[in-house]
Specification:
The complex is a heterodimer. By secondary structure, chain A is an alpha+beta fold. Chain A contains 1 helix and 9 strands. In chain A, strand 8 and strand 9 form a beta hairpin. By secondary structure, chain B is mainly alpha-helical. Classes of the chains: A alpha+beta, B mainly alpha.
Amino acid sequence: MKYILSILLLMPAFSFASENEFVISIKDHKFEPAEIIIPAGKKIKLLVENQDSTPEEFESHELNREKIIAGNSKTTIYIGPLDAGRYPFFGEFNQETAQGAIVVK
Amino acid sequence: MFGTAIIVFREVLEAALIIGIVTAATRDVPGRARWITAGLFMGLVGAGIVATFTEVISSFASGIGQELFNAIVLGIAVLMLAWHSIWMASHGAELASNARKVGANIREGRSACSILLVVVGLAVLREGSETVLFLYGIAASNGANTSAMLSGGFIGMLLAIGLGYTIYAGLLRIPMRWFFGATSALILLLAAGMASQAAKFLIQADILPSLGEALWDTSAIVSEQSLTGMLLHNLIGYDARPAGLQLLFYVLVLVCIGFGMKITQDKSISIRSKERDLQCAV
């Protein structure tokens, strides 16, 4: 009984975490996927995985975020809660190719 | 090459402007050149170390180490600038009127200089480490135009240092009676801007609430990517889309330092007039 209760108690926490987590990877100085859709009015956790060997800086003036991601490493960036709209971001160290956007719906 | 120049320019500009303003503000503090050079050197060494350990710093505190690191570095710089402003408020006038006499007071001069060292060192450390990583990325990718990009970076660095020197030279031309007011105001705004940046990192790390993601949006009027936007960002902490917490930190630092300066100024004036009365009595 105790066991079931604890699972029941944990369940909403788990679903909450996965619902608000989004993953973007960087490969050959490009974001994949280049566009993600997130819900409006909610704080989300963006996991950025840099698969290149060189460092990159995730930057967005619209989102007001900047974070360096070392080569072959992962990082977490918290975003929002945001209003609906399109929020472009880019990799500052490879701006020609590294372009993406977060679409809030 | 052009793109590289802009990125390096942007990174170096902040440190160059801070050094320019702080160097001008302390023009009568004896021995400051040595301390500033030492700060610069330590900042460069620190930047190399931080760049090397980027991944370690990032993974610290479950992925928000970088934000914590930046917020702490900015926080220390704000405290140092606050200390400097308050110290200058009580000693600035004396320094200007009688540099030699205060120069003899080595202990006080030294404490002002150690603040300088920390402020300059931290500015170089933070902006320098990003520049090192960026240039390392270019060098490591070994592309066809690596040397052109690296020379672009060098040009960007020179331009930023040139602007830092321009603000230094410009400040020195200000007549003495306005000089302390002008440099104090600039340092006050510099500190408030840094506090706002620290707030941004604490929001990004989800340590503190944003209190509104974007209070307003002036990016259509002054874009942060434009030269004006960059200068305003570095000098007065301009942000086209500031979060509520950023504004709160900004105003809080302005009020606290301004208040501290006012108190010490009044105190030093009353002490000085008392001394004068005493001399007259003798």
